[in-house]
Design brief:
There is one protein chain. By secondary structure, the protein is an alpha/beta fold. The chain has one domain (about 1-195): Rossmann fold (3-Layer(aba) Sandwich), CATH 3.40.50. The protein contains 8 helices and 8 strands; from the N terminus they run βααβαβαβααβαβαββ. The strands form 2 sheets. A 6-stranded mixed β-sheet has the order 3-2-4-5-1-8, with helices on both faces. β6 (about 155-160), α8 (about 170-180) and β7 form a beta-alpha-beta unit. The radius of gyration is 15 Å and the shape is globular. The model has no long low-confidence stretch (mean pLDDT about 95). Belongs to the peptidase S51 family. This is Peptidase E.
Length: about 200
Amino acid sequence: MKKIFLAASFADVSSHLAVFLNESLQDRSVAFIATASLVEDYRGYVENDRLAFKNLGLNINELDISCSTFESMKTILSESDYIFISGGNTFYLLQELRRTGADQLISDWINRGKPYIGSSAGSIVLAPDIDYIQLMDDIKKAPQLSDTQGLNLIDFYPLPHFNNEPFIEVAHQIYTNYFSQLSIKPIDNDQFIIVDDQ
């Protein structure tokens, strides 16, 4: 019972969200988790995604899992209609999800049918394992991460920014390295993947 919308760049495909959810987004709320971006120099994509949600009429509940208490995370996730995780460093994101217990909270909500929206790192982290993305994301930014097992909520491996600068070369290299071993799903910034098994 999952309802998942995975993008490379949410701001570029946000107009499709209401159709996928089959409901009005006006005055709905989204738990907006931008933690993956905290270790990156460029973070403009986070503001683009935040603006996209606002333009859709959603109320944004900011949630930085790196510094929130477990109880506050539980409250925000419970009170929000949707969960969104932005782009950034996937390894740092996974480290913080695990360290805080947010991984289990979010997984539980997704398995109970709460719609989940991922953008780039927020899409990758749902895969069975995130080791394949090392050419794109620096694993050294997650020194406390003991292994690369993802949340394992999907049975494929999203590969964002497939034909988008500055990631074209590295994304194609990842695909070449892994396509024969893993179910790699390349998406560019104008594409998205939906999982709807309700």
